[in-house]
Design goal:
Pnp Oxidase, Chain A, alpha/beta, single chain, 2 domains, six-stranded parallel sheet, globular, Rossmann fold, five-stranded antiparallel sheet
Length: about 325
């Protein structure tokens, strides 16, 4: 965790393993602060929500040496990615790792159900609500954690949110969410307050300017891309470095790729800056036609790949493979 601008400057020289779990100094307060109730940080893509969630989980586990902390999200591939980043963040601290559980919400439900309610059986939603209210607040939370940190919270279901709210109750620092409801992909919108989650006065929007990203990449060119395929229960992770192109080539390629986008795809670059307060009078075009001028904030990155990993969460055990340029792109089998 960094506290000043000088430390931030030094962080830009970190190796890749530290950079991907780097916490921006402006976000440290929401990692270490104590909250009397459920809390949420939100922000557009790339503002550091996941890193805040990781550091928050570690902070809660360190603060209370007897506590168990659950770090969860809506899918197994994302949970596997969180697990990897968590180990990078606290490598060399096995006692801490033992008290930090990383599970997808479905796996968490499958784990607690037999212990608390017996083998799963199909029941009505009314019966489910009654069971959660009767069992969740004390019995389950004592066994499975004193604190819950949820990443990509926009895609958890209403039932999962209700369960977490019942487990956390009104305890201090028991429930922390990171996500952006505007990036929802897999769930229909629903009211958080109607399922018992009230974040009024305990919500913050992360606003690290996207204009800072080019400067950061110029100083620290290491890049890792993640392609998540939820239905296939797989994820690709591509690692490499940003390559410098001649200015005239950069401009030519920006123009070419801009015109290759569909009118609907271009429209996103015509919207107001993400993460800023919503203005009902602002323009949100649905399309930008062919020939639309190239916006300054449309950037093109040329990445030289050095490594590709594929994690497949089907079968037992899960299958993880790697291909590296330095090894002639030969396939390597890894422990999942």
């Amino acid at each position: 965790m960094l506290t000043g601008t000088e430390e931030l400057a030094r962080a830009l020289d970190y190796p890749w393993e530290r950079w991907i779990v780097f916490l921006h100094p402006s976000q440290a307060d929401w990692v270490g602060r104590s909250f009397k109730g459920t809390t949420r940080v939100q922000g557009s893509a790339g503002t550091g929500k996941t890193v805040v969630a990781l550091h928050r989980a570690v902070h809660l586990a360190r603060r209370n040496p007897e506590a168990r902390v659950l770090l969860t999200t809506f899918s197994e591939p994302l949970a596997a990615l969180l697990q990897d980043k968590l180990h990078r963040l606290i490598q060399g601290e096995p006692s801490l790792i033992e008290r930090l559980d990383v599970l997808a919400m479905q796996k968490f439900g499958e784990r607690i159900h037999p212990a608390q309610l017996g083998m799963p059986q199909l029941i009505t939603s009314e019966h489910l609500r009654a069971l959660i209210q009767r069992h969740a607040p004390a019995e389950i939370s004592r066994v499975y954690g004193e604190a819950f940190v949820v990443d990509e919270c926009q895609d958890i279901t209403a039932g999962q949110l209700r369960l977490l709210a019942a487990l956390a109750g009104t305890s201090t620092d028991a429930l922390f969410f990171a996500g952006d409801l505007g990036q929802r992909i897999f769930q229909q919108p629903f009211s958080w307050t109607q399922v018992g989650v009230d974040i009024r006065g305990r919500s913050r929007t992360l606003r690290i300017s996207r204009s800072a990203k080019p400067a950061e990449l110029a100083h620290q060119p290491a890049v890792e891309l993640c392609w998540l395929l939820p239905r296939a229960r797989s994820q690709f992770r591509l690692r490499g470095s940003l390559q410098t192109l001649a200015p005239e080539q950069v401009q030519r390629e920006r123009e070419r790729h801009w015109q290759m986008l569909s009118p609907g795809g271009r429209a996103l670059w015509g919207w107001p800056p993400p993460g800023e307060p919503f203005d009902p009078e602002a323009a949100f075009p649905e399309q930008l036609p062919d020939g639309s001028p190239l916006p300054d904030h449309f950037l093109l990155l040329h990445i030289a790949l050095a490594q590709v990993e594929l994690l497949e969460l089907t079968g037992h055990p899960h299958r993880r493979r790697r291909w590296r340029g330095e090894s002639g792109w030969a396939e390597e089998r890894l422990n999942p």
